[in-house]
Amino acid sequence: xxxxxxxxxxxxxxxxxxxxxxIIHAIFEQRIPPGERLTEERLAETFNVSRTIVRQxxxxxxxxxxxxxxPNVGSTVASxxxxxxxxxxxxxxxxxxxxxxxxxxxxxxxxxxELHEHLEAETxxxxxxxxxxFVRLAGEFHLRLAELTGNHVLVxxxxxxxxxxxLAILLHAKGEQACPPGEHGxxxxxxxxxxxxxxxxxxxxxLKHVEMDLRLDGExxxxxxxxxxxxxxxx
Length: 235
Ligand SMILES: [Zn+2]
Hints:
mainly alpha; Arc Repressor Mutant, subunit A; Four Helix Bundle (Hemerythrin (Met), subunit A); 2 domains; 3-stranded antiparallel β-sheet; 10 helices; 3 strands; binds zinc ion
């Protein structure tokens, strides 16, 4: 399947950070599937920038585990295995309840207004059946929370975890494929009431629901050549 990138305007003079942001945006909208091969030539042409800038962007995404370098293939978009997905979600369960607990005592009025605006956009996209936009906004809600803490390290970590979760959902989801409706609102309400304990509990429930919608038990889908041969011998 060919890569379907959104309509990018020309990016003359833009940095590798902007290229990374746009690739992540496309992953959030489920426009770039896991395992997709990305080449310097293709990206340089798509973004109309030099290959040097593309190379820097790809190096940054590789560092974050969003791109994976494969021998004889080049760079491909990460395809988190079931085990990797369980690990990603385990880290999210450690980190995100703390994020909302912190926000319950520290978020400004402007920050809360931003969250409510985000929720309205999510609801509108869901209502209008704008699937790509809705899935992206649902993922970005978790990044907004990290951004509102003002902690840059946390934003970097959450960007990485959320991007890998988006890719894992495409590989392992059973159904809904996005955050369950209403739960972001409940988390935001608890933050607004300055009730950190409820906000943390709601976030933990929410992450459990996300995980329950994934098939993460049992064998990995991919099998090695030797495993296939062993299976054939037993047929
Ligand atoms: Zn969510």
